[in-house]
Amino acid sequence: MATLIRVTGDFDLAEEVVQEAFVVALERWPHEGVPDNPGAWITQVARNRAIDRIRRDGVLRDKVAALERLEALHAEPEAAPGERLGEIEDDRLRLIFTCCHPALAIEARVALTLRSLGGLSTGEIARAFLSSESAMAQRIVRAKRKIAANNIPYEVPVVEQMPERLPAVLATLYLVFNEGYLAASGEELVRTELSGEAIRLARILVAMLPREPEARGLLALMLLTDARRPARLDERGEIVLLEEQDRSLWDAERIAEGLELSRQAAVGGPGPYTVQARIAAAHAEATSAGDTDWDRIVRLYEWHATIAPSPIVELNLAVAIAMRDGPEAGLAKIAAIEGLNDYHPLHAARADLLRRLSRDAEAAEAYERALSLDPNPVERRFLERRLTELA
Hints:
It is a single chain. The chain is mainly alpha-helical and 391 residues long. Among the domains are: 2-78, no CATH class; 82-207, no CATH class. It is 67% helix and 0% strand. The protein has helices spanning 2-8, 11-32, 38-56, 64-73, 91-99, 106-116, 122-129, 133-149, 162-181, 192-208, 213-226, 252-267, 272-285, 294-307, 311-325, 327-335, 344-356, 360-372, 377-390. Helix 9 runs antiparallel to helix 10 (192-208). The longest helix has 22 residues, at 11-32.
């Protein structure tokens, strides 16, 4: 779809013809067999559908450039990302930077990229923003219209434009990774294709911007977090909390790479992704849950709350304080947080701290509140199990 957006300049047309190409594949492949290069096959069929659509528009003189690009697409070779910005040929990366143009509001940039590149539903994006689905749908539509009306170019910006474009790109990649690592909906907790794509694109960014510490910090954060994935679920597919995970299952290679990247990023300054990477490094360096340096983690979260304040950062800080100073201290911190009443992890965290204090009635009420906020089915089973244990 990113390729079709590049050659047509039309988000909606690209999405429609790619969907049509998948329908054709579903009809033909069971009988004709899967082609050697399924992605190229899909792109080619979508290209032909786009040509048909544009020719039927009746305004051919206004579509000559798009038709020429589509006609040339079948001969276009697949090129690896180059070392210089002008040589980057990765259409998905171009799509991110197009969606993250400064002419768009920051939330519109991230939402449009998650919809176009990550394939997330409008509902999933709305959850990531703690917004309503209808409001998010309107935001995405307005962003598409603004790109078309302003003739925003489909390209990776030059180095001088990077400072104003990079924050939204980093935020986009992190949200794509998070949706892959902890899916907002569906029957699975993990969507590895999304987290893997976010890591792949983050590697390209680091190659493009070797002196940008936050790009390196984000990649480190992703790797250190993803390294724990093999231990997050038990053999029945149920959640295993961090403190209970078998750390021998963690990916040692990813941890080693993430630790080195986090150290390199920290030299460049205390950006929010770099600080989060150092927090993940503190967990990765602990040989057991009991060896975790919670004092260091609390200090890092306090630093994070200073440079990038948000209610979610405050919640993470509250949990860290609870692990260092006890559940009562954590509960007091959670009680002071505003703006997360409809965020189920807050109520789940509060329920766990109340459970540790044997305040079972209050804990049950908090678990029920978390369940009422429609968590992922895997998380739901975990919360229901905790609630049953209390009973």
